[in-house]
Design goal:
alpha/beta; Glucose Oxidase, domain 1; 7-stranded mixed barrel; 10 helices; 44% helix; elongated; binds 2-acetamido-2-deoxy-beta-D-glucopyranose; transmembrane; transmembrane helix; membrane
Amino acid sequence: MFLRRPFLGLLTLGLTLTLLGSPSVQATVEIITPIPELPVTKQPSIDFYDARIDPYTYTGPLLQMPIGPDCQVNVTGVPRLRSSAWQAQVSDDTPAKQLGTVIFFDRVQAIQQGCYSSTQVMKQIPAALPTISARGYPAVKVALFACVLLANTTFGGLDTEVIDDYFYHLPPGVEVAQIGLDTGVMFSQLTQGAVNASIAAGPEVPYVPIVVRVTEEPGAWNDSLHSTPFQAYLVFYYISYAPGIIYAIYEFARLLIASKCRFQPRFFIFLAALFYLVVSMLLAPTAPLSRAQNVFRYLSWMVGYFTLFTVLLMWLRIM
Ligand SMILES: *[C@@H]1O[C@H](CO)[C@@H](O)[C@H](O)[C@H]1NC(C)=O
Ligand SMILES: *[C@@H]1O[C@H](CO)[C@@H](O)[C@H](O)[C@H]1NC(C)=O
Ligand SMILES: *[C@@H]1O[C@H](CO)[C@@H](O)[C@H](O)[C@H]1NC(C)=O
Ligand SMILES: CC(=O)N[C@H]1CO[C@H](CO)[C@@H](O)[C@@H]1O
């Protein structure tokens, strides 16, 4: 019976998303650089799953972070910014504290180089920052990570991304956000095009990067996760485990007393059920989990199913 509860959680999230309709993406990454042949200049960018971020807006050069073999970020090839010509593309009323470099990671390249989660490259950002500023870029303010889904879908969710423990590896002073797979490919093409154009123009012409403006947006997942109905559901979810846990402890104590602590298989059943219930309660199915937490969740499922079938087999024996 209790095995069904995690799926109830997923069902509720699904329902919440359905109720909310399509992703409510208003804020975006906007390409400021005038590119005549570009039909769409605004692409959605959303916060990481279950992140609570204060609103921000940053404008500055767009820079691709090259990923080398074994998912190692390699900034050796980052083009040098030899002038502040990019600032001419920024409107004069932009406050100086809203200026900064926007770096991004292309997912196609990440997959080719063996990365399985954004966290792997996120961890390497602090080490890359000195090289980026040595190449003449303003301070890095935003890091964008391309997802495996296209930008016009609910990208960045638990079912398609390895959320991993990104929340332990946030680069200090740098906001992180997600973009669609297609957005990453497009940005990669545009930045490479700008580099190629600069090389073609000759060494005396300074490299002028693509300039973008990134505005914070919680995204469809956070809209759901942080909504009042969903928070109410989570409270209900946690509380709903209490009767089962309290009853299991009570029955286990009775069994211990009745059996005078002499070992018997039913001990295992109670301990396993308690393990399952406590882990399931603590790790709600919609929570972003670290690797260790994921191991515990799958262990608890294994233990839960194993125990259920053990009970069935024992029941057959007493028939
Ligand atoms: C980093 O990239 C450069 C070329 O941009 C290459 O020469 C160098 O070997 C790479 N370093 C590593 C450690 O892969
Ligand atoms: C998403 O983009 C694809 C490709 O452009 C298009 O076929 C599809 O209809 C779009 N979906 C939505 C929901 O806009
Ligand atoms: C830039 O130049 C490289 C090397 O010549 C080429 O492989 C690549 O396709 C070019 N990219 C763009 C977007 O022009
Ligand atoms: C905590 C948090 O960031 N909640 C936001 C989730 O998304 C909604 C809708 O965009 C915002 O109003 C909340 O502030």
